[in-house]
Design goal:
The structure is a homodimer of 203-residue chains. With 203 residues, chain A is of the alpha/beta class. Chain A is built from 8 helices and 9 strands. Chain A has a domain at 7-36 and 97-202: 3-Layer(aba) Sandwich (Rossmann fold), CATH 3.40.50.300. In chain A, 43% of the residues lie in helices and 21% in strands. A 5-stranded parallel β-sheet of chain A has the order 2-7-1-8-9, with helices on both faces. The longest helix of chain A has 17 residues, at 172-188. The two termini of chain A are 18 Å apart. The A-B interface holds A 121, 124, 127-129, 154, 157-158, 160-161, 163-168, 177-178, 180-182, 184-186, 188-190, 193, 195, 197, 200-203 and B 121, 124, 127-129, 154, 157-158, 160-161, 163-168, 177-178, 180-182, 184-186, 188-190, 193, 195, 197, 200-203.
Chain lengths: 203, 203
């Protein structure tokens, strides 16, 4: 039997650098790793592709999926809906792939309710001032959106206490290496390590 | 304030390869790592040095240390006593060093009683047959000692369930790399990561 993959949830406030860290993680430690693809009602940003970055759906189809329990979690973030497709994640885990969910702070705790074995990692920038700079520097949002994101980010920091791990994103490469270590370490944790001690003693 | 070091306990049955793994760990990931030195009443083996491999003490001095509570734990293994000097370990942790204790299976759980934050790692060889081969191949023991070690090893395997992590030692380099990952991951765990979220939000 193939060992089940590990579900790793990466969350944190807007501007913490979650997306960049996930890309770095896939580039350097991607061998057995899949990034889950979210369903969203948000309009695509420049360069975002259907089925690669997101599954873009209209509100009607999104709530059809909610009704039919096809989403592990969904949340409204900055007036757009985002959800995690359950079947996609479960299929990958069954194949033995480790799956990363890069989702918002509220969504992460919902995943834990369904997948108790999920590992929750909270990403924060070194200081709140850094976070402000990153959100403003993104250049894809209006001033109103920026204010909203900052206000949300401030509130979201308090959710960190519900997570298993916290990583301060002061260096992208370092942060990705730490997440890879968390993955390796979690695979050695006793309830997961899949060693049959009785069989071992007979072997 | 300097962050307190992490106490990592490496245990497992005789012949699991604990000693070799610890040496590999110190060679490749030794930057902020110290191997604790045990006190023992055992006679030195060839090449073993006082204050480097062990503090060799006679029975009288050993039990003086026990009486004066200078040992975190002590145990009788194969008719010899081994103990962990409390002051040495605490000083290193306070300096911010990560400390490895390579001790026997019974000792490890006693350490956890005193240092609740200690991380317990259990090392097992791939199969019991491998373990037998390693104990026999050591060539430093009599046949009677070998039988005793094998019998103990068989019983000790059942202690694995009390540990935080289990590592199958099928490759020394790989096992050492996994322990280094456990160390990095544990430093990111929420109760340890030493982030002042209130201060962060003001920063």
């Amino acid at each position: 039997m193939k060992n089940r993959g590990l579900l790793i949830v990466i969350a944190g406030p807007s501007g913490a650098g979650k997306g960049t860290i996930c890309r770095e993680l896939l580039r350097n430690y991607g061998e057995n790793l899949e990034l889950s693809i979210s369903v969203t009602t948000r309009k695509p940003r420049d360069g975002e592709l259907e089925g690669v970055h997101y599954f873009f759906r209209d509100m009607e189809e999104f709530f059809r999926m909610v009704e039919d329990r096809e989403l592990i979690e969904y949340a409204n973030v900055h007036d757009n809906y985002y959800g995690t497709p359950k079947k996609y994640v479960m299929d990958k885990l069954e194949e033995g792939k480790n799956v990363i969910l890069e989702i918002d702070v509220q969504g992460a705790t919902k995943v834990k309710e369904i997948f108790n074995e999920a590992v929750l990692i909270f990403i924060i920038p070194p200081t709140f001032a850094d976070l402000k700079k990153r959100i403003e520097g993104r250049g894809t949002e209006t001033q109103k959106d920026i204010c909203k994101r900052l206000k949300n980010a401030y509130a979201e920091i308090s959710h960190a206490v519900n997570y298993d791990y916290v990583i301060v994103n002061d260096d992208i490469k370092d942060a990705a290496a730490k997440i890879n270590c968390i993955l390796i370490a979690e695979k050695c944790r006793l309830p997961r390590c899949n060693i049959d001690f009785e069989k071992f003693r007979e072997g």
